[in-house]
Amino acid sequence: MSQTNTEDLVREIRRLRDEKNAVILGHNYQIPEVQDIADYLGDSLELSRKAADTDAEIIVFCGVHFMAETAKLLSPDKTVLLPDASAGCPMADMVTPETLEEVKQQHPGVPVVAYVNTSAATKAASDICCTSANAVQIVESLDAEEVIFVPDRHLGGWVQEQTDKKIILWDGYCATHVRISPETSGDARDKHPDAVVIVHPETPAEVRRHADAVLSTGGMVRYARETEAKDVVVGTEYDMAYRLQKENPDKTFHTIRGAVCPNMKKITLPKVAEALRKMQYRIEIDPEIADRARTTVERMLAAST
User: Which domains does the chain have, with CATH numbers?
Assistant: First the structure.
C-alpha cells in the first residue's frame, strides 16, 4: 500500500470513528500501522476495561476473536466489531466446554481457572479467569489445594513454579510462543550479547529459565520504560517490539526469529475501514453464556484489585 493510500485510509478511519462514536482498540501484537491508528494499545483485558469506561457506542477490536468477546462481556450494551471474522486463536480453540467437562468429572470439586485467552463459552464453564499478569495471584486467592488451569500448559507451568498448590495442566499452548525455543532465543542472545532478555510466560520452561525476566505484555511495557539496559531482546510476538521501540526511542529492542502470530496479522487498515463502513463483523454472545462468562471475569477483577 502506497503512503498516499495509507494516509487516505487513516483519514477515512478517523472520520468514520468520530461520526459513529467509535473507539479503536489495538492489541500489542498488531501490525505497526494498526497500532498507530488505535485509540488505545494494550493487552486484551486492559483494552476491554478501557473501552467499557468510554462513552463510545462502538468498539472496533483489532485483535482476535476471544478478545472481542471479552470486550462484549464488559460492554454488553455496546456494539463490538472484529475487522476480520477469521482472526481466531488456536490456543483458545484447544479447550471447549465439552472437553473441559470431561476433566471436571475426573476432578470433582476442583475449581477451574481459565486464562482470558479462551472463548466466552469456556469462561462460562469455568470458575474464575486470569491473565498472564495475575495468574499466580488468582490461583493463590482460591480456597483449594488443587486447580485445573486451562488452556496454556506453559503459563500454567510458570504458575506451578510459584505456588505450592497443585496445578492440573491442560495440554494447550500458544503456537507463536512455542516458536521461541532455546535455539531461537539463544541466537538472539548471541547476536546481542549485551542485551537483557525478557520473555512472556507462555514461552516454554527452558526458555523462561534462561531469561532475565518473565513478563506479561503489560509488564514488558513497564520494564522497557524503567530498565537502565539499552538493548532488550523481546521474547514475545514480533510486533510487541514496535510499541516498545516507539515509546522508548533511546533504547533498542530486538525480536526473536519466527515469533509471528498469523491471526493477529489478519487485521489491516482496509479491514478496519471496512468494519466501520459496514458495521462488521459484530460479536454476539448467547445471553446465558455471557452472564456466566462475565461472572468469571468479575471474580477475577475482584480478586486482583
Answer: 3-87+264-278 (3.40.50.10800), 92-173 (3.40.50.10800), 177-254 (3.40.50.10800)
